[in-house]
Amino acid sequence: MPGVTYPEFVPRFPWRGPDLQTLRNVLRGPALPAAPIEGRKELLFSMRDGSNDRLAGLHFTAEAAPGSPGDRPLVVVVHGLGGSSDSAYIQVTTAHLLGLGYAVLQLNLRGAGASRPHCESQYHAGRSRDLHDVLSALPSDLTPNGVVVVGYSLGGNMVLKYTAEFGEVRGAASISAPIDLEAASYRFLDTRNRVYHAHLLVGMKQEMQSTPGGLTEDEQKRLEAARTILDFDEHIVAPRNGFTGAKDYYDQNHARQFLGDIQVPALLMHALDDPWIPASMYTDYAWSRNPRLEALLPRGGGHVGFHGRGDRVPWHDRCLEVFLARL
Length: 327
Hints:
The protein is of the alpha/beta class and 327 residues long. It has helices at residues 18-28, 88-99, 128-136, 154-165, 181-187, 194-209, 217-225, 229-240, 246-253, 280-283, 315-326, and strands at 40-46, 54-60, 74-78, 104-107, 147-152, 171-175, 266-269, 293-296. The protein has an eight-stranded mixed sheet with strand order 1-2-4-3-5-6-7-8.
């Protein structure tokens, strides 16, 4: 986006290095208050695949900020792996955007958070049609100025894939998205990531076991036997969703292959020191192929961290603020 100036990221003391940036909200709690309970409304969206699954979204209406224009789009925020509308980064972004005068819809993906009681199946990184079903069912009075969709981590991959395939939005943004799913899966096998890996795998197993649809006896055995996220994708995610294996799942759904097809402004933010996602999937991409894309790749920030010096608002939310204002 020519002429747009985004703030520079400089880490805030003492949250220096990829791991402290990644873990800051866990260690200290969100930097901003959670989105207010009053004024929010829960919406349910039926999936059109015949499954009877429904996704839950929380809609927040913002009061117009002083001096703000009246054509602000609805911002739909999509969580990452193991997350939900309760995730700290979702709460912080929502509070910040509401303060700027943007209405927000926090979407819980299939089987996650508030969607869990309404679903027999589970989300994965490529379920972009779920997002299409939600956005096409939004009441018209909520979207007079269109929609911008924002995704975090795994949700970012889904958002970018959706934007390329359907493009029914004014713009899209991703934060720390694993746009090469296979490379991200293998990165978790690194020794330095063993604690992260173990924590995420436990959460994924618990999430799978608690879905109302339950597991077959064979699936339960395969779930218990899974020792890595790669195993989980190979023996649970792939067969449950019609893929021949983890590689087929990764190959069909990684967002990097779809970036050239995006036809609306899209902002991709990723830290080059992200401990979970290799920088090469971003640095090796020829961004000039699609002038609608803009990649912000600071040297630091961790995974969905970006706690910057002199500001309680995360850097990625400041950049999102600029992006939205320029649309």
